[in-house]
Amino acid sequence: MNQHYDNFTLFKSIAFSFLAFFIILVTIVIFVYYSRKKIIANKLRSKEKELSIQKNALNQVIQAQEKERIRIARDLHDDISSKLNAVTMSIHILKMDTITKEQRDEISTSSLEACKMIGENSRRIAHNLMPPTLESTGLDLAIKELCIDYSKASDLQILYKNPMNQQIFSTLPMDHQIHLYRIIQELFNNTFKHANASSITLTFTQNEDGMRFIFDDDGVGLKKENMQDPTGIGLSNISSRAEIIKAIPLFHKSEKSGFKFELIFNQK
Amino acid sequence: MIIGIKIFTICYYTILISSILLYYVTYKKAGYEWIKIIFYFLGGLLIIQIGSDGVAKLGYNNIFLSHIFFLYQFIFIGKLYLTLLKKYKYQQLLIKLYMTTIMLIMTISYLLYPESFFRYNLLEIILTNYLMIIGPLFYFYSTLTKKRMQFYLNIGILSYGILSSSIQLYLNIIVTYKVEEVYTLWSLNYVITIIFQLTILLQILHTIYTTRKLTYESAL
Predict the structure, then answer these.
(1) A95 and A144: one domain?
(2) Whole-model pTM?
(3) Which of A1, A87, A197, B211 sees the fewest Cβ atoms within 10 Å?
(4) What total number of domains does chain A contain?
(5) Residues 122 through 151 of chain B touching chain A, CB cutoff 8 Å
(6) Residue pLDDT, tens place only, B46-76
(7) Average pLDDT of chain A?
(8) ipTM over 0.90
(9) DSSP classification of residue A250
(10) Distance between CA A241 and CA B116 in Å, rounded?
(11) Do A163 and A92 share a structural domain?
């Protein structure tokens, strides 16, 4: 009877222990199952978000392309086409027998001037589309050229600091260099049009983590709400291009109380 | 064996008192609710441990203090998870439900059988330790994609919950036949308790480090 009681106690102990172990095991299995489910859902959500950002960036690029096409068409119409019409008319007049020698000389001179202008304008348009310096000698010189062009066109004091010169961009693919060039062009345009600034500083540095580009001016600066969410076409264009080259754009208030833009790119 | 127990006791008291001091200082500085709960929990543990050692030295049965310890631990661990999972209503509700149910079961069982308060109660140990398994699992699930501030504490509670429950369950099976193994397993339980206390200490050291880092960065 006593032996039977001991066996029953042991059986009860084993059954209870197994049941408790089983419950602990089931709890852990449920946790692992739901955690995996949550991780997958989270990954999906972040992929969707990434996709939406990419879509947005693509949209911005298409919009920028359309804007650029309109600008090129306007430049061609205003600077090339109209002058070519004037030259055509002058040639027709030159073919007439009724004009005097003085008139002929005057028309020839003005036509030559117009041809020169057409040449210069077409060079400028081509340069705006893709600066030849960028492809032939690299981004460093193209930026220097851009600085010279903008300082000539305005009273802006432009300081370009890049101690490593072209070497800093040597690991950047060509398409990334073009986007970087366009970002700088857009920044110059913004300062030129809206900032009312007197000086601009461009700085390129490199450290172990990657490269850093800082653009700051002493103009009126950005409004606080635009710093958090740059919604203007120019600024969103900069953000889209930064997104394409996998860079981090940061908009701040400058130490000179103007506008400061920071770009961290080519991260390792 | 006696020397081993003495070493364990010294280690246990040293870690426990250091943790109490550090938790108190950090709570005064940072003011986190969860640190306050752990501080009171550790303070209670110290009192129970001193009481238990005192009663044993006087030659009385101190098993009733183990029931107080398990119920006290159960309430404080529950309170800790109700604080840590404040933002997660569903998990909080489950913990509240579990705590209420267990408290009801324990109260009724001790009211019906008061003599069981002076006996070893495996069901009570398992039911109260189970909260030390589901609590950290809820915490890890809820903070799966977030930064975990109380990582060490939760790892400590979870491993203690699982290991301690396993030892108690195994003891329950072998106690009838292999009495000599009971002491080995019981000393293993001491080791687990020390590890649990160490993770609590590690957690507060980590919190002090991260709080200092944050203060330093915000000062910059």
Answers:
(1) no
(2) 0.65
(3) A1
(4) 2
(5) 122, 126, 130, 133-134, 137, 140-141, 144-145
(6) 999 999 888 888 888 778 888 889 999 999 9
(7) 83
(8) no
(9) E
(10) 74
(11) no
